[in-house]
Backbone:
């Protein structure tokens, strides 16, 4: 798989900007650059020190394409571990295209998505989980996701996995040693120690595996459904939440132009809102279908904000609470009740409603009283929203799994370890135990890249953007 | 106007990419960077050589924001002429925003659009017309526009203007010297030499001024209207032209994602298509309004492709040709006739139509016979289209004015020079001549920036993107 031909690609986003960067990596990166680069002093890049910057023009024979600054990196001290040249040109798509065509005509080839990072992995500059963290870092849009990706890039996740593997490897070697002496019925691997170790490992794998629910939510935004009867004020509430956030996001002019619709960030945690139609009782077949759909969408949410209208009578208010509690029981979904329109009714009214809710639904469901119209008590709602997320794991810096591939591997490793534990209970012979331990080792190795196939690598790096 | 506080901004386009570059410029660029940059070896940027690259992390106290590569430039050998630091980080909007907030909290401020280039101009790194060429280069989407902008950035345009100014300055000094000796009725400035010079200058200014029509068309695309009766095949022809071009544009995967609707590039020249509704005879008031609008759009075009349907009878074919020729007479607009649907009729039919057209309209109007449906003879049409543009000026490297501000200044300078010539004819006294020459000098100086006001600078640099 290891190739050292010279690849090139734009490394900066497409679009018009002040500058764009074209990246070259490979054995001939410097030679190809020297072929098209003209320095005012006539110097050649090949004779320059590494980690230096050089001003000049890029020309195709007599035709000047652009004035550029070239950054020169030498193997192995570069991103890919190969010779790397970065050309900063004016940020025109036309110029970038001309530059790439020129480099290709002089012997470079267009890089595949993720090929620079693939080379970094193959050259031992980073392990596989770190390489994947690079893609996550680029995609990070919130403080929480950024933090998790940064931890992963710094290798914290890999460290934990490697520690587990080393301990398991030690045991499996001892068990396999027993097999060589199988006639003699010796036990080199202490079964009670192995029992203890597998217990520890099982627990750790389970924790990592379970962290994926949070990790995935952090990565894609915690899905929140705003439910409630028609006219209870769902849209006003959503607009209020979104508007508050937009104002923060656009504080620094020109930095954040691509605001994604219908997501907000509260204290660095990303929430993604799911639109739902109003809930109501109906006998109409078509309307019933619409409400079916609303329930389905509520099913995708981790948090449900149920908006209540205190101007309605008590039964009408309590009915949807009962319905939703019925639907989400035996799930991990969190329900938050919102008594809206506090500007329209007396405090005594909302207090009575609260009492009735507690009588029906118990004390565990958080209740926020607010006016979406006036924007009152929004901060309280945000704070309640944040509490619904297991934010502690995030703050304490525990490793959180965000990658579906890692999750799958952890699940398989966990299943194998559970089989080992059962095998120990049932006094299974060493060779059968060894087989399951080997399987766990295999899946753990897949995460760090100690065990890889071209298919795994292809799947990972194809998802990268060009130029990374 | 000259400020040396430290400014920062993203220099690469917004969006997700492998890397993004944040640029800092000003007296404290290095100090602020050292404040947040942590090198693995503990080195400080302030002690490093200029034009060098440094790997490390950017951290806000204990919180690591990203792993970065820093490019270090020292005044005056930088883009702005000040100390400049370029931070290459991972291409996430979130990371960029965090970085900018951090830099601002340590004493930098967000740059205004074009402020880096404004500083380059104020520090004498480039003249005004070169600074404007930077914006044009970034916006360049075709070979022709790129070539013109590159010439301008290299100062060719400014050179010509400066030569004119120097010669005029020489004369105006002599004339003003006469004024000091006005009692004695001497002539230091040879009137016949001045006459010859103003004649030369007038011609040059006229050529430059007139080149703006081409320059503007190159910059924004040559406007082409596809006209014709309903069902003559206008849309099929447009789709054919556009499709051919798209295929070329997307040859290098990932380089050109933002294809602008309805423009094509033929041999590096940009054509922009103007939609028109079908022309037809009608007495209906509303339809008449629609046809009014079509005529108005045809009025905006420089080239009109009139699509003819050879399956119709001769009178119906010739009528719109007469109408359009009537409308565009005494303008510079070019008419190209297209006999479409060559797949539906015999060659003898199209040949007869050609003969009738030549009998009516003469030999000067180019005629292309093709089938838009089959894509036959498209190359011939493209070649005819290209011929309608004064592409010679482009190929010979003559200076072409693309900037409306330059055009206005050239027009004013030209008017002043014409007044000088008239004054010389009428034997006007030196002080009146000097006044007009001074005016011409003023406008020429505005182009290069030798004469500027804050308003002129504001107008120019406000149009730049942030980070340039």
Residues:
């Amino acid at each position: 798989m290891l190739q050292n031909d010279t690849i090139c690609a734009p490394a900066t986003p497409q679009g018009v900007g002040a500058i764009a960067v074209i990246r070259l990596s490979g054995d001939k990166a410097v030679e190809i650059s020297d072929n098209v680069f003209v320095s005012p002093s006539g110097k050649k890049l090949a004779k320059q020190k590494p980690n230096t910057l050089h001003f000049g023009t890029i020309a195709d024979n007599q035709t000047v394409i652009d004035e550029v600054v070239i950054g020169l990196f030498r193997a192995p001290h570069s991103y890919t571990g190969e010779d790397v040249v970065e050309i900063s040109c004016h940020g025109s798509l036309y110029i970038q295209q001309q530059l790439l065509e020129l480099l290709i005509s002089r012997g470079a080839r267009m890089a595949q998505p993720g090929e620079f990072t693939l080379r970094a992995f193959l050259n031992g500059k980073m392990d596989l989980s770190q390489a994947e963290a690079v893609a996550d870092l680029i995609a990070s849009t919130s403080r929480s996701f950024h933090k998790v990706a940064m931890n992963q890039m710094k290798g914290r996740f890999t460290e934990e996995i490697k520690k587990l593997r080393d301990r398991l490897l030690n045991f499996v070697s001892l068990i396999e040693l027993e097999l060589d002496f199988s006639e003699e019925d010796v036990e080199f691997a202490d079964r009670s120690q192995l029992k203890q170790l597998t217990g520890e490992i099982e627990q750790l794998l389970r924790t990592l595996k379970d962290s994926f629910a949070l990790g995935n939510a952090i990565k894609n935004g915690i899905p929140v459904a705003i439910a409630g009867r028609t006219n209870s004020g769902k849209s006003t509430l959503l607009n209020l939440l979104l508007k508050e956030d937009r104002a923060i996001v656009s504080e620094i002019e020109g930095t954040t132009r691509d605001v994604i619709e219908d997501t907000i960030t509260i204290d660095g945690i990303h929430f993604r809102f799911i639109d739902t139609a109003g809930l109501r009782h109906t006998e109409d077949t078509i309307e019933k279908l619409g409400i079916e759909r609303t329930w389905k969408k509520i099913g995708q949410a981790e948090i449900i904000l149920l908006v209540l209208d205190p101007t309605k009578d008590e039964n009408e208010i309590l009915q949807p609470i009962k319905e939703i509690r019925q639907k989400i029981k035996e799930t991990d979904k969190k329900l938050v009740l919102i008594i809206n329109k506090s500007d329209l009714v007396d405090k005594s009214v909302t207090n009575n409603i609260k009492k009735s809710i507690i009588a029906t639904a118990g004390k565990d469901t958080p209740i926020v009283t607010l006016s979406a119209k006036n924007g009152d008590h929004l901060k309280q709602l945000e704070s309640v929203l944040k509490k619904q997320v297991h934010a502690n794991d995030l703050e304490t810096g525990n490793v959180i799994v965000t990658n579906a591939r890692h999750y799958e591997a952890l699940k398989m490793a966990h299943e194998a370890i559970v089989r080992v534990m059962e095998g120990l209970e049932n006094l299974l012979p060493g060779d059968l135990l060894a087989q399951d331990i080997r399987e766990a080792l295999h899946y753990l190795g897949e995460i760090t890249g100690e065990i890889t196939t071209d298919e795994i690598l292809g799947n990972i790096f194809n998802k990268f953007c060009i130029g990374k």
Remarks:
- The domain at 7-126 of chain A is CATH 3.30.1360.120 (Gyrase A; domain 2).
- Confidence is low (pLDDT under 50) at residues 245-261 of chain A.
